[in-house]
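Human: Note token order:
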Amino acid sequence: MDEKGFLIGVLGLGEVIALSFASEGANVAINYFNRIEPAEKVAAKCAEKGVKAVTVRADMCSTAEAKRSIEETIEKLGGLDIVIANAGWTRFSNFADLDALDEPEWDRCWAANVKVPHALLKAAKPTFEANPEGGVLITTGSIAGNSQGGSSMAYAVTKAAQIQLIKCLATTQGPKIRINTVLPGFLRTEWGLRYPQETIDFVIDKAALKHETYLQDCADAFIMLAKNTSMTGMKVQVDAGLNIQGN
């Protein structure tokens, strides 16, 4: 995979995705906002695999920052073939409490989970269409978008909207651009471990395979979607059978 990938978000799953793409020979640009040290460490690990790895600072709750990050990535890598929109936003809250998140938090969730992926593709589109083999956008969705639960109601609603965004973009932005999403289940990451232990135990027991979503299994889905030239508008659910009934 002699391509230039752009990774959004570096902690947890983002690190595994970055290293997986680097192992495939892809150059990577790694996004961070407040914490540069983890981004630099992941970039160094990627560089050890013989690829070019750079970092790009941007707030992925801002469409203007998203646009700038694409422009900076193209400048640093000399091109762009793949965008992995791995960032998102939520705040853990009582799902049933309609006052749990205020209006600015709902707006922030909408911006991060819907507006920014749209802005990333809009910024990357001219480069993608100029590439001989086009370009790829893959977002990190969530099974929360297929169910009625999760870290917050705003998160579930906006992740559902992201699924519809992917379908609309895929329908209208071909044939040179492919757009898909990966829907993980429970991931044992810094973020996922914010759930109470009893919730984690319940979720794992509920999964048909009786284990969490393994990070490498999830990252492998991104690699597959980046390579598969016959898939667009698709959601690939990698959740150990936690939400089989999801539509």
Q: What stands out?
A: Residues 4-235 form a domain with the Rossmann fold fold (CATH 3.40.50.720). The chain has one domain: 4-235.
